[in-house]
Amino acid sequence: MNSEEITLRKAEIDDKNVIWGIIQQSIERRRQDGSTQWQDGYPNEETVESDIAKGFGYVLTINGEIAVFAALILNDEPAYSSIEGKWLSDGEFVVVHRVAVDEKFAGKGMVKKLFDHIEGFTRSHGIQSIKVDTNYDNIAMLKILESKGYSYCGEVFLAGGVRKAFEKIII
């Protein structure tokens, strides 16, 4: 296990098909779990292309193989400006969206590792906090956020539904 090289890097256009495959697996997993999240045609292939083109797309690789995709967006989530509740801070923040794990790596703590790397990225860029939202029925993500010390801040309205919003102060 210790010989694994885990890195977080910007996604490149050559990664698009692999990333889209991972997102399709996640969409199907959410469906099988009975979740409404990601069941309405979003995210889609254009979402992936857009994330990569805008520089939002990041991949967590294990020995060079893509294990997890996430979109990391700086200071820009219009839905977060109106929260039913209160954010912990009003400084600069990184938004984490569209987290998807390759099923080959599922159940191995990869999303926790992803969040460790995102925290390092946030700290190294001198950004105050990380904000993230998830569906009420995304139990796995809710447990991860709790275990990583994220605070529940309230509700945001996003992608046609109410989402639970969390924040963690990094610096």
Automatic annotation (TrEMBL):
This is N-acetyltransferase domain-containing protein. It comes from the Bacteria. GO terms for molecular function: acyltransferase activity, transferring groups other than amino-acyl groups. Residues 6-171 form the N-acetyltransferase domain. CDD domains: NAT_SF (cd04301).
